[in-house]
Amino acid sequence: MNKNFLLLFLAFFSLQMYAQPTTYSTANAHSHNDYEQARPFYEAWEKGFGSIEADIFLAGNELLVAHTEKELDSNRTLQRLYLDPLKKMLSNNHGSPYADNRKELQLLIDVKTDSVKTLDKLIEILKNYPSITNCHKIKIAISGNRPPAEKFIHYPSFIYFDGVLGRRYSALALSKIIMLSDDFETYSQWKGLDFPSEADYNLLLKLVKKSHALKKKVRFWDAPDTPNAWRMFMKLHADYINTDHIPELAHFLIKAH
């Protein structure tokens, strides 16, 4: 079968499997800059978050997790903070990231150094974790520094990409994009109080609807992180709610559910 035809077929099939959220739970929660939590990975995992974020730097022959280069610590490797705990959970839960084997987990990896070199190292490391790469309940999404979109299809099947809201992609590139995200402040200066202006809300809603028409999940980062804002993102049908406040968002979503 022609390779491009096969990729287009798989992309079409994935579109049929997608459904935007109608009810919300912690599966719709995204732990932003998770490594800054007191217990990286575990705090969000214990609350059942659907998405967890780690920023990585290629430092020598290691992938280190940090927000900035000056915060790099040789003890804080991607393996130690995220891959080893995730491997352990898969073992504990008979091949699923959670005890409830219906639940999925997205590991969003934000690349801070050279996209190609860092991704090559990431793939090399991930090949030592077949329980992760072969688990259909786990999706590894690459954000931050990414190779050109036309190169996405050349990466292994266990690597997906976080696309940019408003950017146009080919069908082949879309077949490797699992989510569309963007800086909230690009579209609105709303700070999470009261309600955004009608113009801002309609613009955000248009973006979400456009992404859902492509059958892609949506996330806004650098967004207000308050209960009022969480309600607004639910009203917009954003698929993931970005937070630095894991217990508070978990409690809010459990009550909302």
Order of helices and strands: HEHEEHEHHEEHEHEHEH
Report the count of strand segments.
9
What top-tier CATH class fits best? Alpha Beta
CATH topology-level fold name? TIM Barrel
Q: What structural class is derived from the secondary structure elements?
A: alpha/beta
CATH architecture: Alpha-Beta Barrel
What characterizes the major β-sheet? 9 strands, mixed
Task: Please work out how many helical segments DSSP would assign.
Answer: 9
* End-to-end separation: 45 Å
Count of the separate structural domains: 1
Q: At the fourth CATH level, what is the homologous superfamily?
A: Phosphatidylinositol (PI) phosphodiesterase
Q: Could you write a compact summary of the structure shown?
A:
With 257 residues, this protein is α/β, with parallel strands linked by helices. The chain is built from nine helices and nine strands.
Main attributes?
257 residues; nine-stranded mixed β-sheet; TIM Barrel; 36% helix; alpha/beta
Describe the structure.
The chain is built from nine helices and nine strands. The protein has helices at 3-17, 42-46, 78-92, 115-126, 130-133, 171-174, 198-213, 227-236, 246-256, and strands at 29-31, 51-59, 62-65, 105-111, 138-144, 159-164, 177-183, 217-221, 241-243. Strands 1, 2, 3, 4, 5, 6, 7, 8 and 9 form a nine-stranded mixed sheet that branches. The termini are far apart.
